[in-house]
Amino acid sequence: MRVVIVGGGMIGMTLAHLLRRRGLEPVVLERMPAGHYVPRGYMLGFQGYEPLEEVGVYDEVRAAGRPIAPRPGADPVAVAVRFGALIEALQRDLPMRNEHTVTGLARDADGRVVGVEVEHAGGAETIEADLVVACDGVGSPTRAMAGLEAEIDPLPEAALSFMSPARADSSFAMAYMSDGSHIGMLSWNEGSAGWRTCAKSGAEAALAPGLDAVKEMWVRLLPASESAVAGLTSIDQVRYSEPALLRCPRWWVPGVVIIGDAAHFFGPETGVSSGIGLGDAHALCEAIVQNRNDPDAACASYETWRAPVVRPYEATDPGRQRIMMAGQIHPAPGEEWPPAA
Question: Among residues 123, 144, 305, 322, which one has the fewest Cβ atoms lying within 10 Å of its Cβ?
Answer without folding.
Answer: 123
